[in-house]
């Protein structure tokens, strides 16, 4: 399986509902065929808490090594993805919520004074809660209290959760809001990155050139390439290869396709090159990866 997104990489999964927009979910990286979930974003805040193992978590241009007992605050609208660390599974809990649970309505003093400054600070995409600062300990305790509240199924569950979220936000406001304010250029460039990801999603099976991608966001080729590498910490070519390999895993789970067919379906015109890149990224050829998935057709 993989996270379902629209053409702009926005996750389509509902996080709660309008009446109470909060979702707490137990997750395992191994439920994704490749041991990773692809780049996506959503307008909700996401708190991640590692319950077993380790993982690599990327938010915008930042990379975090999360270990058991660590947490992560992910801000609204950030691009993020996660993958296994050392090819080992990782179990984690996600608390995803609409920040209006904290501020009520947009014109409120709560929104203007306490929530808006954090939501609109693009220089604060995430905070790694790993105990390196004193306030991390009570913040992590509040996340575990949220998980405990979910298990207890109290009559006052919704009220209890809002209280815990507001206590967490208070810590965040007091200690995590010192990051520099966003620049208009950074914000615009991340919008361009989303457009690039959307273009790759819609065209990965075809020939993808720097010229085509640059034209799609109305930049020259050199600026497009420079911007992508600055914010994504890899070249466009490297990202396209990585994305195509991740998409190929969806086809490997279907025994109706042979390896050569899959290579062409994800944009590789040479099946030998596809196998080479797959082995480099996944540590084994696609045929062995397929056998591990339980499929039978290889040739």
Question: What's a concise summary of this model?
Answer:
45% of the residues lie in helices and 18% in strands. It is of the alpha+beta class.
Task: Outline the fold blueprint.
Layout: E1 22-28, E2 36-40, E3 45-59, E4 62-67, E5 71-74, E6 80-84, E7 90-97, H1 100-103, H2 109-119, E8 126-129, H3 136-152, H4 157-175, H5 184-203, H6 210-216, H7 221-232, H8 236-252, H9 259-265, H10 271-282, H11 286-293
Antiparallel strand pairs: 1-7, 2-6, 3-4, 3-5, 3-6, 3-7, 5-8
Terminal residue distance = 23 Å
CATH H level, superfamily name of the largest domain: Regulatory protein AraC
User: What proportion strand?
Assistant: 15-25%
The CATH C-level name of the largest domain is: Mainly Beta
- Helix count, per DSSP? 11
| Shape descriptor | globular
Query: What is the second-level CATH architecture of the largest domain?
Result: Sandwich
Which labels suit this protein?
299 residues, alpha+beta, Jelly Rolls, Arc Repressor Mutant, subunit A, 45% helix, transcription, DNA-binding transcription factor activity, Tscrpt_reg_AraC-type_HTH
Would you write up a description of this structure?
- This protein folds into two domains: 22-175, Regulatory protein AraC (Jelly Rolls, Sandwich); 184-293, Arc Repressor Mutant, subunit A (Orthogonal Bundle).
- Helix content is 45%, strand content 18%.
- It is built from eleven helices and eight strands.
- It has helices at residues 100-103, 109-119, 136-152, 157-175, 184-203, 210-216, 221-232, 236-252, 259-265, 271-282, 286-293, and strands spanning 22-28, 36-40, 45-59, 62-67, 71-74, 80-84, 90-97, 126-129.
- Strands 1, 2, 3, 4, 5, 6, 7 and 8 form an eight-stranded antiparallel sheet that branches.
- A hairpin with a 2-residue loop joins strand 3 and strand 4 (62-67).
- The radius of gyration is 21 Å and the shape is globular.
- The two termini are 23 Å apart.
């Amino acid at each position: 399986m993989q996270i379902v997104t629209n053409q702009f990489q926005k996750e389509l999964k509902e996080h709660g509902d309008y009446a109470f927009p909060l979702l707490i979910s137990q997750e395992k990286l191994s439920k994704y065929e490749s041991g990773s979930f692809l780049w996506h974003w959503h307008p909700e805040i996401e708190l991640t808490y590692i319950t077993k193992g380790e993982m690599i978590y990327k938010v915008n241009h930042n990379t975090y090594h999360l270990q058991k007992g660590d947490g992560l605050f992910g801000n609204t609208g950030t691009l993020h993805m996660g993958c296994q660390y050392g090819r080992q599974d990782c179990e984690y809990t996600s608390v995803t919520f609409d920040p209006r649970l904290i501020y009520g309505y947009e014109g409120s003093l709560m929104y203007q004074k306490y929530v808006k400054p954090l939501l609109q600070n693009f220089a604060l995409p995430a905070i790694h809660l790993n105990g390196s600062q004193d306030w991390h300990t009570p913040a992590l305790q509040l996340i575990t209290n949220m998980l405990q509240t979910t298990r207890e199924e109290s009559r006052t569950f919704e009220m209890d959760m809002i209280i815990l979220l507001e206590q967490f936000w208070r810590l965040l406001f007091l200690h995590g809001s010192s990051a520099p304010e966003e620049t208009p250029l950074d914000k615009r460039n991340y919008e361009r990155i989303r457009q690039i990801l959307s273009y790759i999603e819609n065209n990965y099976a075809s020939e993808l050139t720097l010229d085509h991608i640059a034209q799609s966001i109305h930049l020259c080729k050199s600026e497009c390439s420079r911007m992508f590498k600055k914010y994504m910490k890899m070249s466009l070519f490297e990202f396209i290869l990585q994305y195509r390999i991740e998409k190929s895993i969806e086809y490997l789970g279907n025994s109706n396709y042979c390896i050569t067919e899959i290579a062409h379906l994800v944009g590789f015109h040479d099946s030998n090159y596809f196998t080479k890149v797959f082995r480099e990224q996944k540590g084994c050829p696609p045929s062995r990866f397929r056998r591990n998935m339980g499929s039978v057709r290889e040739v």
